[in-house]
Amino acid sequence: GRKKPLVVITRKLPDPVETRMRELFDARLNVEDRPMTQPELVAAVREADVLVPTITDRIDAALIAQAGDNLKLIANFGNGVDHIDVEAAARRQVTVTNTPNVLTEDTADMTMGLILTVPRRLVEGAGVLKGDGKWEGWSPTWMLGHRIWGKRLGIVGMGRIGTAVARRAKAFGLSIHYHNRHRVAPAIEDELEATYWESLDQMLARMDIISVNCPSTPATFHLLSARRLALMQPASYIVNTARGEIIDEAALIEMIREGRLAGAGLDVFEHEPAVNPKLVKLAEKGKVVLLPHMGSATIEGRIDMGDKVIINIRTLFDGHRPPDRVLPARA
Ligand code: 8YV
């Protein structure tokens, strides 16, 4: 038969995924559970037919410029491709694929979790029973949060994840509002009883909770800028399970510290894995809930993501167009 493609996988993946990769490919696995170093990445793109990176790898133009003639495919293990220079890859005839759909519902669950957790103070409450577990007893005025149902949720980015968040939130009695580059299909608007806001500014000013669900691109960098955050109501909350760069994090911190925003639930950060110590302080005060990028972190989801990566690789090496091709943004 044909020679198996040399597939370099940058991170340790769940066992069933690695086993399957080993069966199908000449798979070079990373046995240590740490990101590859820059020299390791350079060696990988020089040699490999396929690179399987994750969000912890920076696949920029400089790295792609060092790719060998063999490199045909960058099959990202993950949905967002903001860490990959897709244009630079296209210029070198290197295909880029991602793993859409399989992490939509998991990420929407995590988003809904934060929407419930922050206003209802779940983490603070659980904290009371940590340590010595001493609880002074119930009181009518103690641990009061804010009601979720009946509130207005504004979704920034109504793609697959945004829509899945909207479905959940509607079932919890929130009214659904969204801002997106394009209006979604009327059937979806009807199903969700969703209100479209062409103006992000106007939507921000009228919502109780904002959920960020758009991709990170040059156009969405600091989309929630200091000026826009200042439009939000002081009693409102913001939840981000997309990418840290979409919010001006320093401005968000100042807004919460000054009481101009009620709080935030963040699964992603501007300088991951570094987290601004001011955010950690705010978490200690119960103003924010911080999660270490767990939106899609389910064992089932990771196995599905592995399956997607495998299908993309096999399809390309069978001479067809892989199902999850990511095209460069149009200039
Ligand atoms: C993963 C994600 O953390 O897919 C994404 O865009 O943010 C998460 O699923 C990551 O992508 C794994 O590479």
TrEMBL record:
Domain D-isomer specific 2-hydroxyacid dehydrogenase catalytic: 16-326
GO CC field: cytosol
Gene3D superfamilies given in the database record: NAD(P)-binding Rossmann-like Domain
Source species, domain of life: Bacteria
UniProt keywords, alphabetically: NAD, Oxidoreductase
Oxidoreductase recorded as keyword: yes
Domain D-isomer specific 2-hydroxyacid dehydrogenase NAD-binding: 112-295
PROSITE patterns: D_2_HYDROXYACID_DH_1
A molecular function (GO) term: hydroxypyruvate reductase [NAD(P)H] activity
Family listed: Belongs to the D-isomer specific 2-hydroxyacid dehydrogenase family.
Official protein name in the record: D-glycerate dehydrogenase
